[in-house]
């Protein structure tokens, strides 16, 4: 009888422990944020991901399975409405706990406009003005800021810090684990930054053209020479006039490479490079083709740097 009571007591204790310390339900919008979140949550829980595979956040539509993930979430990490416009209404109308990470990063670059970068569209937010000193998750003042913030490892460190802070806020019982994981991630990101700088050190004076203007943070961090993009807003196909201008740009810029992306049809790349002596390669700013998990961000960044280096250096 004593043995049965002891068994029941232990079972109840284990149930209460599991119920009390269940990992928070966390959703990340895109794979790079998912990876960094997974790293901070290592050994505690696993976040859910919305935009998967070769889908692009620029033209994504929420699926029923996504809606279920969001409905069950304790916390949602996203870049902001200029990147994941599909999320804005759902997050705000349902008053979901979310963190707009574009407000948290160290490096914030103005979106490039005009000339070889064409004219940016901002999803009907063009009439708003940016104020670097006023930010919150309900009033978006960053419409003129380039949203591809994760493509700089220094920003990734800031993102990790923001994720760490928010997870500790909602799950203080695991605070020490979150801190330990975040410290490890920041060290690894600093080493990643040094490695990429070394790899790309000789490529800075070699111009290239990208599919869409997603790589400004990467270019600025490593001193690279972006010469233009096929399209600034990937939701809109460039006009025939724009394509003719780009064909001329390929010739006059001395571009070594024109880069496609797995999220978009590479037929446009072929149309502007046909007849020109220029290399073609693919850059993946989301890590769409690799496995998910805490190491995915590092794999994506190393792959991106390697593909760029190989094309620019001719190796």
Topology diagram in text:
Elements: H1 2-20, E1 26-28, H2 31-40, E2 48-49, H3 64-72, E3 75-78, H4 85-93, E4 98-100, H5 153-170, H6 175-199, E5 208-212, H7 216-222, E6 226-231, H8 240-253, E7 257-260, H9 267-273, E8 279-282, H10 296-313
Parallel strand pairs: 1-2, 1-3, 3-4, 5-6, 5-7, 7-8
Question: Which descriptors would you attach to this protein?
Answer:
10% strand; 43% helix; globular; 4-stranded parallel beta sheet; 315 residues
Nearest-angstrom radius of gyration?
Answer: 22 Å
Helix content: 40-55%
Strand elements, count:
8
Major sheet characteristics: 4 strands, parallel
User: Strands of the biggest beta sheet: in what spatial order?
Assistant: 2-1-3-4
Element order: H for helix, E for strand: HEHEHEHEHHEHEHEHEH
Name the assembly state.
single chain
Describe the global form: globular
Q: Can you walk me through this structure?
A:
- The protein has helices at residues 2-20, 31-40, 64-72, 85-93, 153-170, 175-199, 216-222, 240-253, 267-273, 296-313; strands at residues 26-28, 48-49, 75-78, 98-100, 208-212, 226-231, 257-260, 279-282.
- It is an alpha/beta fold and 315 residues long.
- Strands 2-1-3-4 form a 4-stranded parallel β-sheet, sandwiched between helices. Strands 6-5-7-8 form a 4-stranded parallel β-sheet, with helices on both faces.
- Strand 1, helix 2 (31-40) and strand 2 form a beta-alpha-beta unit.
- Helix 6 runs parallel beside helix 10.
- Mean pLDDT is 84; it is low at 13-19 and 119-143.
């Amino acid at each position: 009888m004593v043995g049965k009571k002891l068994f029941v007591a232990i079972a109840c204790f284990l149930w209460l422990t599991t119920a009390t310390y269940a990992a928070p339900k966390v959703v990340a919008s895109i794979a790079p944020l998912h990876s960094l979140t997974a790293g901070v949550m290592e050994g505690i829980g696993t976040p859910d991901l919305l935009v998967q595979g070769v889908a692009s956040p620029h033209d994504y539509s929420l699926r029923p399975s996504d809606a279920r993930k969001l409905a069950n979430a304790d916390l949602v990490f996203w870049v902001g409405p200029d990147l994941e416009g599909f999320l804005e209404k759902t997050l705000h109308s349902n008053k979901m706990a979310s963190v707009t990470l574009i407000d948290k990063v160290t490096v914030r670059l103005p979106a490039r406009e005009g000339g070889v970068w064409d004219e940016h569209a901002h999803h009907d937010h063009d009439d708003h003005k940016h104020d670097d000193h006023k930010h919150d998750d309900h009033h978006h003042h960053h419409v003129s800021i380039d949203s591809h913030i994760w493509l700089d490892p220094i920003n990734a460190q800031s993102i990790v810090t923001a994720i760490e802070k928010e997870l500790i806020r909602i799950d203080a019982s695991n605070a020490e684990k979150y801190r330990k994981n975040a410290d490890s991630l920041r060290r690894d990101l600093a080493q990643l930054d040094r490695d990429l700088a070394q790899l790309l050190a000789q490529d800075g004076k070699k111009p290239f053209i990208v599919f869409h203007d997603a790589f400004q943070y990467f270019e600025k961090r490593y001193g690279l020479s972006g010469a233009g993009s096929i399209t600034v807003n990937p939701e809109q196909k460039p006009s025939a006039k724009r394509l003719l201008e780009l064909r001329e740009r390929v010739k006059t810029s001395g571009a070594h490479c024109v880069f496609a992306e797995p999220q978009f049809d590479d037929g446009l790349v072929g149309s502007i490079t046909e007849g020109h002596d220029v290399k073609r390669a693919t850059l993946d700013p989301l890590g769409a083709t690799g496995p998910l998990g805490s190491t995915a961000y590092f794999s994506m960044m190393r792959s991106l740097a390697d593909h760029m280096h190989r094309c620019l250096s001719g190796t």
